[in-house]
UniProtKB/TrEMBL annotation:
Keyword list, A-Z: Centromere, Chromosome, Coiled coil, Nucleus
Main location: nucleus
Species of the source: Ceraceosorus bombacis
Protein name: Centromere protein Cenp-K
GO terms classed as biological process: kinetochore assembly; mitotic sister chromatid segregation
Annotated segments matching region Disordered: 58-81
Family of this protein: Belongs to the CENP-K/MCM22 family.
Coiled coil: 189-237
Length: 350
């Protein structure tokens, strides 16, 4: 169908302006017409040929009108028939201009291809033979403006679509609601798991602290009960004993301590004599002197029973007494010794 219209347009291009514009107008007005790019280019060629012919015709007509303007005016004034022909020609020219604008708008809307960009050889010949450089430049400028306008229109459409998408309501389908609900539940479960783990660790620490406090409380209660019994016993003794009896008890304790001390000294002397031979008599004398110094210090100043042994006594003797649990080192100074508490049970000499 489009080929028939093109043939009609080509064949009518030499017969007259009315038939050409009528064919092109009918072609563009056909709603069932399917047009591809190649056929649009052919249609543009036909339209360009018609435009060239009209331009040449108008130029010649203008020249003839310019040369014989005065004569035609006189003839028009004298001949009513000629005046009517001129008026009809002017009306036909205006109508053809309007039709030509409609065709150009239709071509631009259908093909969106500028006539100056047609790549066929015969089109290039037509352009080179019939159009000057100024016409080509004007058409190129118009094509550029049209394309810029199309780009602006596309940008406006994109912005409108983005605005519509931004105000679209959220999905209210059951599936979307279920997915959102599961996501929220999963996040809540993870938060509760973390909080539960932290609470369990805190409960474990509090349980351990509570067990330690209970054990300490039990020990303190036992100590408190022992002290209470000791106080009650001492009170009973103080009530029952007279001052003379208390004095006698103290003298008896001192006598027992002196007897134990004498026995201990004799035991230590015999032990030192057994450990050291006559060749090491000097070492034995130093051992007895060290023991005597420790015992005297413990007896004279019970609050500070430590003795400085850094330079006065041989280090092997000091190490021997420490290993034998006879003497104890100072917690903060290993150069100071004190006598062990022999009156305490085994394992509690310190």
């Amino acid at each position: 169908m489009l080929g028939q219209h093109l043939q009609a347009a080509s064949s009518s291009s030499g017969k007259g302006t009315d038939s050409t514009f009528a064919s092109l107008t009918a072609l563009l007005a056909d709603p069932n017409l399917s047009i591809d790019v190649r056929l649009v280019e052919r249609l543009q060629v036909a339209a360009l040929q018609e435009a060239v012919r009209r331009q040449v015709t108008n130029r010649n007509s203008n020249e003839e009108v310019g040369r014989a303007g005065s004569k035609k005016e006189e003839d028009a004034e004298k001949d009513p028939y000629t005046r009517e022909l001129l008026q009809a020609l002017q009306e036909e020219k205006s109508r053809n201009d309007v039709e030509w604008e409609r065709i150009r708008e239709g071509l631009t809307r259908l093909g969106k291809v500028d006539p100056s960009e047609v790549g066929m050889d015969d089109e290039e010949d037509v352009w080179g033979a019939s159009m000057d450089d100024s016409a080509v430049e004007r058409r190129q400028e118009k094509s550029l403006r049209d394309k810029e306008l199309q780009v602006d229109m596309l940008d406006a459409e994109i912005k409108a679509l983005e605005a519509e998408m931004s105000v679209l309501p959220t999905s209210t389908t059951t599936l979307a609601q279920t997915i959102d609900l599961r996501k929220d539940l999963y996040a809540s479960i993870n938060q509760f798991d973390d909080a539960l783990m932290e609470l369990r660790a805190r409960v474990e620490r509090e349980r351990q602290s509570c067990d330690s406090d209970r054990k300490l409380l039990s020990d303190l209660q036992a100590v408190s009960q022992g002290l209470e019994r000791r106080i009650a016993t001492e009170k009973e003794k103080a009530i029952l004993l007279t001052p003379e009896e208390i004095s006698d008890n103290l003298r008896n304790k001192i006598t027992r301590v002196e007897a134990d001390l004498s026995l201990l000294l004799n035991t230590l002397i015999s032990t030192s004599n057994g450990l050291f031979t006559e060749a090491n008599a000097r070492m034995g004398a130093q051992l007895r002197a060290l023991l005597d110094t420790l015992m005297n210090k413990a007896w004279d100043t019970p609050a500070d029973p430590y003795v400085d042994v850094n330079r006065r006594f041989a280090p092997p003797l000091v190490a021997f007494l420490v290993r034998a649990n006879i003497a104890l080192e100072h917690p903060n100074d290993s150069r100071r010794l004190r006598l062990a508490n022999f009156q305490l049970p085994a394992g509690t000499l310190s």
